[in-house]
Amino acid sequence: MKGYLAKLRPAERRIVVGVIVGLFALINGIFVFPHFSDWADEGARLEKARKKLADYKAEVAKKPELEKKVKKLEGAGQAVPPEDQMFYFRDAIIAQGGQSHVNIVNQNRPSTSTNLFFVEQSMQIRVLSDETNLVNFLHQIGAGPSGMRARGLSIAPDQPRMNLSADVTLVASYQKGTPKPASRSGTGGMTTAKGP
To answer: Tell me, what's the pLDDT at 182?
Structure first.
């Protein structure tokens, strides 16, 4: 390059050097100057990632405390029985009626309804009993581990006016099991069905 510039006259040298400097400035303007802010952007991204990591570590550090709270809350409430327990719904009502000396004179078929998380089973029964045994029956139904409760209650004296006749709607909620693969039979997704 020096040999080439030495052969040129001074004015030509200035023009060649000016062209080279201009090209250098043009290439820098196109490829280098637009990326000057990239370093600051990368620094901001790095700082954001460090903050996110610190937040995640802080949340992970809270895990033992949160697990204690979850166990405490699980112990405070009544656990919802799994879905397979719903087949004992009618048997549990009849057994509790016998234990509480309540005569179940009529019972409808249990009906089942579902939502995203729970299966709810309900059954209407008519009982004949004195008031003490009826109250005991309702209390024992609600106090048991099955999660049953009375949703509706209609009481009237029986014909000889010796006992009470009551129409009771009993309900129990169960945890919904994992969904089964959909069959291709085309039956559709019904949410309410009659139980056994």
So the answer is: 55
Question: What is the DSSP pairing of strand 148-157 with strand 192-194?
Answer: unpaired
> Considering the entire predicted model, what is its pTM?
0.48
Give the domain ranges of the chain: 2-58, 83-179
Angstrom distances, CA of residue 65 to CA of 6, 52, 58, 69, 70: 81, 21, 12, 6, 9
Residue among 96, 76, 114 at smallest CA distance from 191: 114
- State how far the Cα of 65 lies from the Cα of 87, in Å rounded to an integer: 37
* Residues 128 and 103: beta-carbon distance below 8 Å: yes
Question: Residue 196: what pLDDT?
Answer: 45
Which CATH superfamily hosts domain 83-179? Answer: Ribosomal protein S6/Translation elongation factor EF1B (3.30.70.60)
pLDDT at 97 over 50: yes
